[in-house]
Write a structure and sequence with these properties.
This protein has 189 residues and is α+β, with helices and mostly antiparallel strands. It has one domain: Pseudouridine synthase (2-Layer Sandwich). Helices cover 17% and strands 30% of the residues. The protein has 4 helices and 9 strands; from the N terminus they run αββββββαββαβα. Strands 1, 2, 5, 6, 7, 8 and 9 form a 7-stranded antiparallel beta sheet that branches. Strands 3-4 form a two-stranded antiparallel ribbon. Strand 7 and strand 8 form a beta hairpin. The protein starts with a helix and ends in a 5-residue tail after the last helix. About 6% of the residues have low confidence. InterPro entries: PsdUridine_synth_cat_dom_sf, PsdUridine_synth_RsuA/RluA, RluA_PseudoU_synthase. This is Pseudouridine synthase RsuA/RluA-like domain-containing protein. Pfam families: PseudoU_synth_2 (PF00849).
Amino acid sequence: ARLQFAGRSVLKAYVCVCCGWLPTEPRLLDSKLLRQRSERDDCWITVVAREGAATGTASAPSVPQLWLSASTEVRHVEHLLGPGGERLSLVHIVLHTGRTHQIRAHLSAEGHPLAGDTLYGRATDWLSWCPRLCLHARRLAIGGGIAGERIDVEVPLPDDLKAVLRLLTPQSERGRTELDRLLLDPSGY
């Protein structure tokens, strides 16, 4: 799988809802990532390398940090309002690399953590009407393997995420069309 990612023969597409209004133009988020222990609990988080930030060492000076390249393509953004008037964005993403928590780390570094993200978001981003992390792997396509056939799997939105999306109000006609398509089309793409 890593070789196929490197050769760009894997497509991993996601849909998510993030806090705030993300800019609507398509773009590439390519900040480097580093996995480190969370201060909040005993889990690993991924941090984003800032432009010009020191990449020094991990907890012990003798252990160099390994910053990994990561590429997250923001393909499509629609602005929404939550039930309490919260500004939210419906985002279609394609990964060009497959790093742990890559989408969560990149969007949080942009100032737009995923709705329901208690690890990368702020406490105020945990919305009462949002019972889960609003991130869904919609499609996985893998280029020809040994036999040469392509595998392409699309996964419909789960019911709990559909319930969250039904609570949101699109801020444009195009946004209404996109939300309806996600909720009504079983294939979703």
